[in-house]
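Sorry, explain these C-alpha cells?

***
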Amino acid sequence: MGKTEYQHKVRLKKGQVIEVPIRRIGINGEGIGYHQQQVVFIDGAIPGEIVSARVTQVKPSFVRAKLIKWKKKSAYRVEPRCPVYHQCGGCQLQHIDRRMQRRLKRELLEEAFVKYTRLSTIPIEPTITMDDPWFYRNKAQLPVSMIAGKVVMGMYSASSRRLVDVSDCLVQHPLINKTLQTARDISEKLGISIYDEKKHEGVLRHLVARISFATGEIQLVLVTRTKTFPQEQAFVAEMCKQAPQVKSIILNHNPNRTSLVLGEKNRLLWGKEKLEERIGDLVFLLSPRAFFQLNPLQTEKLYDEVAKVAHLTGTETVVDAYCGVGTIGLWLAAKAKRVIGVEVIPDAVADAKENAKRNGIENAEFYTGQAEALLPVWAGEGLRPDVVVVDPPRTGLHDALIDTLLNLKVPRIVYVSCNPATLAKDCDRLLRGGYSLKKVVPLDMFPQTAHVESVTLMTREDQ
C-alpha cells in the first residue's frame, strides 16, 4: 500500500471502541481482524468471532485493541482450566477447544508459506496432536522475586515484568511444580537473598527443574548472581529431606545483566551430574545447559516423522546440523550408514558423544562448531551428505548455512522448525535455489500455547 493511499484511510485513535470480525490467529495467539483496512490485533479473540474492542495502541502498520464484548462468540470458545490464565504469559490458547487449536496451528504454517513463498499449493498434512494435552512439560525455569516480603516464583505477565505466581502450572509435570514449590519455600525459610534485577543485587535469580519421564528423577538448578550460595549445605539437606524425587542439585553462575536464564558455569552441589531420559529405546544423559525437547511424549512422534521423511535405506551419510545432545542423529543412526552431528555448545557435544557410547551406536560422530563453517571444510575433503537435518532456534537458519546447503546441492533437507515464519522464509530461499517442497507436517508439541512444531522435507532432482 502506497503512502498516499494509507493517508486516505481513517486513522483509529487510542481509546476508540471498534467492531472487528476476527479472520485468523497470530503467532502469539492473538485474534487478527481488519477495521477500515487497518490490521487489528486482539488478545483472546478467536477466528470466526465478531467483537467489540477498545483501541490501546496505534502504530503505522497495525493497531492493538482490548476485547470488551462479543457480537458473535465462537462455538470453540471454552473456559480456561488455569485460574491465572488471563494474567500469566505462558499459555495463549486455553480458551480455545483443542480441535480448533489443531486447525489453527496448521493454518499458521499454511499462512506463513502463502506470505513468504510463491507456492500456489502447499503440501501441509493434518496436525499430529496429543491424547492428553496437560502436564506434558519436562522442564521449567522460573524467575524468583521478593514481593511484599514474600518470595514469589512464576511467569512474567505478557508484555510486562509483572511476576505472576504459577507454582501449580497445568502444563508442567506435577513433580516439577512440587519440586519448585519446595525449593522456593526452603529458600524463603533460610532467608536466601533474592535477586533484584533493577539494582543487580542479591543471589538467587531463577529456579530450574527438569524431570525424566522415564525414571521420575529430577535435576534442580539454582541460578545465582554470585559464585557461592548462602547456607548451601542446609539447603541441600532440606531438599533431600522434603523432595526425594530430586537426584541432582546444581548451582549455575549467571553474574551478568541479561535476559538469558543460565550462565556458562555449573557446580554440582549434590547428587548426579546428569539426568537420564529415554526416548523409545534410546537413553540420553542431560547436563543442565543441554537442549532437550520439552515434551517427551510428543518427541517420539516428532522423531518418527523425521525418520519417515528422511527415508533412509542404510547407505546414506546424514548430517545433523543443530544436533544438541544428539537426539535426532542417534534416532536416525540405525537406518543410516554414517551420522555426523554439529553443535556450538561444547557441553551438548560431550553429552552427544556420551549418549552414542551409552547406546552402543558406533556410526555417529559429533563435533563442536558451526555447521556453516565445518560443512564447506568437510566438502573440500570429499564429504557429500545425502541428508541434512536442521533443527534451528526460532531465528531460523544462518544465511551462511543456507548458502552452504545450496552450494553442496544436498539431495534431501529435513527441516525441524518451531517458527512458521522463519521456516517459510528459509524454504523460500531454498526453493529459489532449486529445491522442491515435498511435505510439511505440523506437530502440537505445546498444547494450550500458540507454538507449533513442524517437520518439512525439501528435495532437489538434479542429483
Notes: Residues 375 and 404 are 7 Å apart (CA to CA).
